[in-house]
## 1
Amino acid sequence: MLTSGAKRGMPEYCLIFDKDFNLIGFKNTHILSSMRLIVYVSFFMSIALVSPSKLHAQNNKPFTVVIDAGHGGKDPGNRGNSYYEKKIALSIALKTGEILKIEKGIKVVYTRTTDKYITLNGRANIANKAKADLFVSIHCDAHNSDAYGAGTFVLGLHRNQDNFRIAQKENAVIFLEDNYEQEYDGFDPNNPESVISLVLMQEDYLNQSIEAANHIQQSFVKNLKRKNRTVKQAGFLVLRNTYMPSVLIETGFLTNTKEGAYLNSTRGQNEMSRAIAKAIMEYKSSLDGTLFSGLVMDDAAEQDATDESVSAVIYRIQISASTKKIETAPYNFKGLSPVTRIQKGSLYRYYYGNFISFIDAKSAIKNTIAKGYKGAYIKAFKDGIEVSITPEMKSN
């Protein structure tokens, strides 16, 4: 455990490491404004100690998914149409985990398996201790209109009042904690300015968080024909302290009569959990090229990817993903060239290079990471279409 300054009665700020010196958590305290920058710099230096390989699944270890059922215990969540968000979220979370456990190379960790209250920091600590590759927090939304549809969120600044409202509702759970002001460093769910400090904490993982969220959102739309509320950014406190790609899912609106009944039903929970599990497996596949067996992929092009000839494949390094369309000039990507932009749905992905072998791309990724793209990883393309990377391709 490392600590910084208790001078003049200032509370300690603690970074918590395991026996292998992996950062697994920290103790939030109320820090004077003049010290805030120092703490952030120290914090990011500690993150640098964590290998970039933590950002994606590796062949020599399981891909660990932490599934967080929102709310629980004394925190019921929203009560739209007299339903209990905490019960619905738990059911979907457990069902999602059971589906994922079918797959080889997947390890599932739950933040809760019963009707139990867990603090927001406690949920993040579970994920960090598990050294998770992905954190998924499951919730249900509410609104005073007849709004409906499923949405996914990553940590970021609110772009509109609706996004702030959703985050404000989920963050308000900290008021159930006696020492919330100290535990969350004076964070105020009702103050939009409090979110600015949150965004810095997940910056290194933002690209892959967006990728995972996009897989989940597209799964809702493609497989369940749900209304597409798109991938958004908002200041969710539960995502702040997780040191891995992290996504929050609003599965739908309990306040909508039809949608609330669907989410409260066995059928609705089964369908939502299957769509989430499938998306998680597709996200994992996009990172390490492995195909999964327990859930059949609908896209025939992806199923046939292993039959593609290696000679016609080119490799690119994905360096960014954004909802913004950015000119692919070198000055926008820290001097990297060439950069290719590919749009899929509402998301733009940016790739560096056109390498004829996986080995060449693997060599180039070191320079890419050195330029600050810590979440960079390799993707394969044939005839302009993304294909899975097979073990044979990795040897060429």
## 2
Amino acid sequence: MGLSSGASSDTQIEYWGSAVLSEDQTGFASVSRNQSAVPEQTVFRGHGVCLNPAGKESHSALMMARRPGSEGILFNLVTGQESGRFRALPERQFQGHACYSADGTEIYVTQTVFSPGSPDHGKGMISVRDADSFNQLREFESGDPEPHEVLLMPDGIHIVVANGGRYPGVDGRSNDATEMSSSLVLINSTTGAITERYTLDEPKASIRHLAISAQGSVVVALQVQRQAMNDSAPRPLAAVLTEKRHFDYLPAPENLWLGAHDYMGSVAVHAPTGIACMTTPKGNFAAFWHVTSKTLLGYFQMHDVCGVSVSTLHDCFVLSNSAGELRFIDPVSQQENTALRQSYPNLRFDNHLSQPVITLKG
């Protein structure tokens, strides 16, 4: 499975992009198996990386600045070189993620109004930008504070947004979790109309990261704001909005939630099997669920693991961590293919890995 155009993995190269930290500097790195990686410096710390579904030939990947951020940068995944950048407009702060429209002509960027003293301060917004010029075409509300990850739904019309729910402090960096309003919303990407809104029964669970299954279910990674709570009881950290629009937690024993320390960092779905992988760098493991049956399948231990993507060529998950390691994990057995293991000692992979880009060798 996973090969295209009749080519074999021996004639193809698969690349992933990630924000990286290296010798107290921040940058972007494009990595592939059996290839050294040198980061491009970006000055700011990056976060989410997304691909243009209609521009695969350009091998471009868009990296957004870590929240609260002010820049987005376009890179070529094959060369690792920058090919464009844009900045936030006045009184706006980027929130770490973006995604493209189905035809690749527009970019949807999560952002927050930053205007202390204004009644709009902290309002969640989506900036819609032209994918070529980066000019803002329109802007609409996300429905709740702190929109974080945004993805395009399979219908190509709606975007799904994880509203983290916290309000920004006057310094723009701290977040107030005393009053939270976290939600998962579906928005018409053309009109900006919020067509569906979902919440969980834990008011201090911040909905942050997303992945979509082939059937249209949205898998959600949560982060519990323990500093704003009065007890230490474990809370679920994973949820799913099914294709039938039922939103609820994914099951796991309490010791798994305890071990994750209130923090799930990233999530991806392996489309052929419908299995989701969710990472917790604080817990040093990745957990696996079958999405449709909501069954916990197992876990894989890895120090400070946070990035997760898929390998199309090797039909498995790819995990990354702050030690510059890549691990290739079979979704069904949750076992590592050690023959594929990679290490980049000069890099510290940050939170997220992009989806892969595949090119022919030579």
